[in-house]
Design brief:
This protein has 168 residues and is α+β, with helices and mostly antiparallel strands. It has a single domain, classed as Nucleoside Triphosphate Pyrophosphohydrolase (Alpha-Beta Complex), CATH 3.90.79.10. It is built from four helices and eight strands, in the order αββββαββββαα. Strands 1, 2, 3, 4, 5, 6, 7 and 8 form an eight-stranded mixed beta sheet that branches. A hairpin with a 4-residue loop joins strand 2 and strand 3. The longest helix is centred in the C-terminal third of the chain and has 19 residues. It starts with a helix and ends with a helix. Bound molecules: zinc ion (ZN). The site of zinc ion has 5 residues, from strand 7. The site of zinc ion (ZN) has 5 residues, from strand 7.
């Protein structure tokens, strides 16, 4: 095979390999609704979230980002966490994990189910990153400007939230 061909084909593969960053998001549920925020830079409705920092676990990142972006102190739902002995910390199991594209790079995202610690808390947006918020019902997600993956994850989260309440 001519040398040039190898070079060009390996360059094509390289172009498809985008930078992968670890992020975490909070699927915040209350009264059969899910909280999404209008992300200024991406111009999309998304759950509160952001990059996982050094020395930070994904669940802590989700809680921190929720607090920073919305002012809400949230608790992660961790009904599937295994209690393993002899470890430093048992961490909640994410509800969904995926890789999605955000333009010039990809995000490996850990999504956690969460609820406000105190139901009386009000949303106070961090205006430089997000400029609007809305508590969506399942019905309101249909045909909305919410990206298709966020719609599907939100529906699954709402379903899980209702089921958990019914089963006590
Ligand atoms: Zn990123």
């Amino acid at each position: 095979m001519p040398k040039g061909e190898i070079t060009s084909s390996s360059r094509r593969i390289q172009e498809r390999l985008l930078r992968l960053e670890l992020v975490a998001a909070a699927l915040i549920l209350r009264d059969d609704r899910i909280l999404l925020v209008w992300h200024k830079k991406l111009q999309e409705w998304l759950p509160p979230g952001g990059h996982i920092e050094q020395n930070e676990t994904p669940d802590d990142a989700a809680k921190r980002e929720a607090l920073e972006e919305t002012g809400l102190e949230v608790e992660i739902s961790d009904s599937h966490t295994q209690q393993i002995e002899g470890v430093t910390r048992n961490l909640p199991v994410p509800f969904v994990v995926d890789v999605h594209n955000v333009g010039d790079h990809d995000h490996c995202c850990f999504y956690y189910l969460a609820e406000p610690k105190n139901r009386a808390q009000v949303v106070i947006l961090k205006k430089d990153e997000v400029e609007n918020h809305r508590w969506f019902t399942e019905h309101e997600l249909n045909g909305s400007e919410v990206p298709i993956d966020v719609q599907q994850i939100s529906r699954l989260a709402l379903k899980q939230y209702v089921q958990a309440r019914v089963s006590g």
